Amino acid sequence: MTALDLHQQMILEEYRDSLPVLEQLKAKVLETLHETLDSSGLFVSAIEARVKKEKSLTGKLALKGAKYTRLADVTDLVGARVITFYTDDVDRIASIAEKLFDIDWDNSVDKRKLHQLDSFGYNSLHYICRMPGYDFRFELQLRTTLQHAWAAINHDNGYKSDIEIPHEYLRRMNRLAGMLEMADDEFSRIRIELTDYRRRVQTLVKNGKLDDVLLDGDTFRSYLQAGPLNTLNRRIAAINQAEIQETPLDNYLQVLKSLNCNTLGDVDRLIKCYEENAYLLARHQLGNTDLDIISSSIGLQNVCIVCILSKGGGMIGLERLFDTLNGQNAQNATLASMTYEQARTLPFMKC
Questions:
Q1: Proportion of the chain above pLDDT 90, given as a percent
Q2: How far is CA 320 from CA 161, 238, 259, 308, in A?
Q3: What pLDDT does 289 receive?
Q4: What does the H/E/C string look like for the chain?
Q5: What gap in Å lies between CA 298 and CA 239, rounded to an integer?
Q6: Which element (helix H / strand E) includes 21?
Q7: Within the chain, what is the greatest distance between any pair of CA atoms?
Q8: pLDDT of the residue at 117
Q9: Which pLDDT tens digit goes with each residue over 276-310?
Q10: Domains in the chain and their CATH numbers?
């Protein structure tokens, strides 16, 4: 047991008496961070908080007790941590924290600016904060997931302990730290470049330059936002005065590629080429039914069906289509046979 002088023992006793307040502060900090970050739309890896354990405080008082005149002088009785996926989100959350809390700038430190050789896992931004209505301050750490994992691994291995560690081990650890720091930066850079790419795609789609946009998941979603199937779907819904239920169309990406669509221009031409026959097929499918709810996928599905059958794909082609859309199962053959029978007498089958 670490020996404390009388003054330090009085601070420790004050800590015991203050534990309910510290727990309340911890809960309030967590609640505030969760609510604010959720409403901001920022997606983080974790939000954590803890109240300093008595054993930890005892050690701190024994080591630095002379600098504390009272318990409230200890700045990390409550500690909170926000772990982000990207380095640039650290600064975004820091800006939010500066609006939420009263920052003690004299005791806060941005360890990212220290640039020490082995500092990667300790590059947190540390704010000492005060929550309105509380006498005690708390520490808020902001770091990335990779920085957090590195710090945890080093702590587990005693990398920052006073025990001397062989030079070869330190050299290898520092090499890994450099690689992780590069990975951290590259993840943020890729996100920025992807955001720019999506904006360029949206501009090209808006301006109708569809042949300049390669077909992929992002570009397909941007194209669908323009509503290229809305007219066809509304015409199909009008057959039975049905309601259109929105359904994701992501699983059609592979289908469209199998139909030789390489750009959004190819997709647009495919829809325009086959939409009239897709409507005729829907009229044949729904005309004698009382179906009053249809999926928003019906237009694109029928376009693909008509394309496959017009090119002689037959039931085998339809079964492959439904395998792609629904996953391979025995019902797809039955569905393909039924669809083929529905389309058999339509004009595009005679081409």
A1: 66
A2: 61, 29, 12, 10
A3: 87
A4: CCCCCHHHHHHHHHHHHHHHHHHHHHHHHHHHHHHHHHHHCCCCCEEEEEECCHHHHHHHHHHHHHHCCCHHHCCCCEEEEEEECCHHHHHHHHHHHHHHCEECCCCCEEHHHCCCCCCHHHCCEEEEEECCCCCCEEEEEEEEHHHHHHHHHHHHHCCCCCCCCCHHHHHHHHHHHHHHHHHHHHHHHHHHHHHHHHHHHHHHHHCCCHHHCECCHHHHHHHHHCCCCHHHHHHHHHCCCCEEECCCCCCHHHHHHHCCCCEHHHHHHHHHHHHHHHHHHHHHHHCCCCCCEEECCHHHHHHHHHHHHHCCCHHHHHHHHHHHHHCCCCHHHHHHHHHHHHHCCCHHHHC
A5: 13
A6: helix 6-40
A7: 100
A8: 47
A9: 999 999 999 998 888 889 999 999 999 999 999 99
A10: 6-156 (3.30.460.10), 228-350 (no CATH)
As a whole-number percent, the residues of the chain with pLDDT over 70 amount to: 92
| Calpha distance 223→225 (Å, rounded) | 5
User: Do residues 302 and 291 lie in contact, with contact meaning Cβ atoms separated by under 8 Å?
Assistant: no
Of residues 113 and 203, the one with the higher pLDDT is 203
Is pLDDT at 65 greater than 90 in this prediction?
no
Tokens of 87: 């380095």
Task: Give 203-238 as a DSSP string.
Answer: HHHHTT-GGGSB-SHHHHHHHHHT-TTHHHHHHHHH
Report the relative pairing of strands 102-103 and 78-84 from DSSP bridges. unpaired
